[in-house]
Amino acid sequence: MVEKVSVGLLGLGTVGSGVVQIIDHHQDKLMHQVGCQVKITKILVNDVTKKRDVYLNGTRLTTDANDVIDDPEIDVVIEVMGGIEEARNYILQALRNKKHVVTANKDLMALHGSELLAVAVENGCDLFYEASVAGGIPILRSLVEGLSSDRITKMMGIVNGTTNYILTKMSQDGREYDEVLAEAQALGYAESDPTSDVEGLDAARKICILGTLGFSMKIDLEDVSVAGISGVSKEDLDYGKQLGYEMKLIGLASRMDDKVEISVQPTFIPLSHPLAAVNNEFNAVYVYGEAVGETMFYGPGAGKLPTATAVVSDLVEVVKNMRLGVNGNSAILPQFEKKLKSDREILAKYFLRIHAKDQPGTFAALTSLFSEMNVSLEKILQLPLKGNDATNAAAEIIMVTHAASKKDYEMVLMQLNDLDVVDQVKSSYRVEGEEQR
Amino acid sequence: MVEKVSVGLLGLGTVGSGVVQIIDHHQDKLMHQVGCQVKITKILVNDVTKKRDVYLNGTRLTTDANDVIDDPEIDVVIEVMGGIEEARNYILQALRNKKHVVTANKDLMALHGSELLAVAVENGCDLFYEASVAGGIPILRSLVEGLSSDRITKMMGIVNGTTNYILTKMSQDGREYDEVLAEAQALGYAESDPTSDVEGLDAARKICILGTLGFSMKIDLEDVSVAGISGVSKEDLDYGKQLGYEMKLIGLASRMDDKVEISVQPTFIPLSHPLAAVNNEFNAVYVYGEAVGETMFYGPGAGKLPTATAVVSDLVEVVKNMRLGVNGNSAILPQFEKKLKSDREILAKYFLRIHAKDQPGTFAALTSLFSEMNVSLEKILQLPLKGNDATNAAAEIIMVTHAASKKDYEMVLMQLNDLDVVDQVKSSYRVEGEEQR
């Protein structure tokens, strides 16, 4: 049985330093868990002379990646350098050298996860990536453990901290999107180019990883239908709240029979649902399993120590598997053929806000259009329009539908604009989380 | 390395049948995870002739416990029979026979956990009990994994489904305790003698187990300060909501430096806190770790398949450890001497509701008592008294304190009754969850 494990680290930034720190501080506990010694022996960096704020205990630094990934003494490679092509090549080479790999790289796993996992299995290696989705939450491990005795039917994740922070501030303080975004940028909570976060691309990568694992189906990033939060207004949140909803950017993966839907979109969630209380930069993933029912995992989505903790927990699994002789078994390759739901098969409830004329016949025109398209209404709220918007239109009408097919609903949306009584369709959002709980 | 594992089951009730079913249905997946075959070979039952609704696949049934626990072929004993003395003796005997043990028995673990774990370690055996706290939530494993690279400072758990169901119905439907309890009993959600649930004893056992594990300190059931929900009124919930709180029965374990507090009590939680949205019979445990920050685990607290899933996940761990040769390491024996906080050292916020005379001087008398005792007030709500209660007293006064020592606060409570202006202290509750998040 393996009695000593050597680890090579690619990258010594925030997460890398956290990993070094945790392994250094918890050497005894780690040994207790896995039954043998675990040591970082080499680290790939850009500059070996740079001063580091972490105790390296004589570990060799190198600027040559091959020094790490071709070293026959190294058993496990941890990739925390980020980026895509270079990281992919290093990981492929490490796997072909029969080294197990732990990565925190969501972009890489979302784009090339299936390829990398296949190469890992071919080489009898583990490839773990817990830190790539919701750093402080052990969600991938929970899915894998759950999967061994259950079948997952749906996942809803708040998996982007920046957008959740923005939506929380908009909702709690009644402020507009632009203002909160600017503040978040000033505070360093949002990037100067926030596109990847606010347009839902970061969340799409994570739900792509979750869907692939949870449904054992190779989901590609292009399969994810994506909408971001940049069009969400304070009014939308206000009216939503009046009808009992909170808005969250939800990564959704759901399955009915053998067909799946994967999407990211601003979504109204009932105020009483646990996801509605996930605030600020926190993340959470809500999972529906046939046997266990509904579970939710909540915690920090990022941060040095939460993310590094996830990387180290993966390393512990790799070492246990090495000693068990079961490496390569845990890399769950997609077992099922991917079948995506058509728009006709996607059933959901929607929240719709329009400005309409306040005159006899408005409601009759609206409701006859909905019923023609087989979309029935659950809630209606009509209010007189106030302020600048009160031009031709005089009524603010908010409707929540019963579950309808996405295709039918989109037909309604298209035709609404042609109705004389409708001045403007202001906004339209998906509603989720109202299953009987 | 171990190539085949035989399991003996003590008990074939709801959970036992679930375990048999899961192992039968997921044989392949299990083997994939642990790298060897796992088979239930004998089951202790009361009646071997009774018809069972689970496929036993030729497994031998016996009414003689020694047939299972003394069988040299059996490697792992799963105890799902319940009760205390008999279960304790069987488990002790199994451990002394060098068999690993998985149990779902919270009463047993709360009372005799430390003794059983010590005997497990003496004999180099594993003793796992994930199913004993919040069946469908992998909370004990998460604590153990978290502990290997973190330090837990506080846990707040909604760990009793019956009381959470009652409080949810009272809060959502504005109904009184007695009425909701009677309905819960009629529906089978509450026992005909509900004492253990509604007086907080069941929750006390669970927080005792969580505290012992999370703080690595032998917490005894007597160390848990316990209050139940039978005195909670609809008015309390209404006024709490006006001030932004939801009421939950919270099992609390918190630590400051090397001293701990363990308690169970009806507690007001801010409406925006994730615990406030844990409704009906769901359980959740909110954990504060120094490295990872705040995490929450949410799911079903009981039920055949959730609980059996937890038992099987423990079995998987045992088998992995057998093949790793690290059994007995995972049984975390309390490492630190128990030091309980005194009432002077327990700092908390409180919600207090009193009936007082609506006359000049009332507020002066109240506030001078509070300030004399070093308890300062954060929120005050005064309303005219309505209905039957309007005898002498005429004002309903609700106050929320800033953090105060429990000792000082209890002095205030005692002396309030002596004030002329106070008619009656109606209720008093702890407030938690308002740390900066």
From TrEMBL, chains A, B:
Record has Aminoacyl-tRNA synthetase as a keyword: no
Pfam families attached to this UniProt entry: ACT (PF01842), Homoserine_dh (PF00742), NAD_binding_3 (PF03447)
Domain ACT: residue ranges: 351-430
Broad EC category: oxidoreductase
Names of required cofactors: a metal cation
Pathway assigned in UniProt: Amino-acid biosynthesis; L-methionine biosynthesis via de novo pathway; L-homoserine from L-aspartate: step 3/3; Amino-acid biosynthesis; L-threonine biosynthesis; L-threonine from L-aspartate: step 3/5
Family designation: Belongs to the homoserine dehydrogenase family.
The species this protein was found in: Evansella vedderi
Record's keyword annotation contains DNA repair: no
EC annotation from Swiss-Prot or TrEMBL: 1.1.1.3
Entry protein name: Homoserine dehydrogenase
Catalytic activity: L-homoserine + NADP(+) = L-aspartate 4-semialdehyde + NADPH + H(+)
Key words of the record: Amino-acid biosynthesis, Methionine biosynthesis, NADP, Oxidoreductase, Threonine biosynthesis
Molecular function, one GO term: homoserine dehydrogenase activity
InterPro entries membership: ACT-like_dom_sf (IPR045865), ACT_dom (IPR002912), Asp/hSer_DH_NAD-bd (IPR005106), HDH (IPR016204), HDH_cat (IPR001342), HDH_CS (IPR019811), NAD(P)-bd_dom_sf (IPR036291)
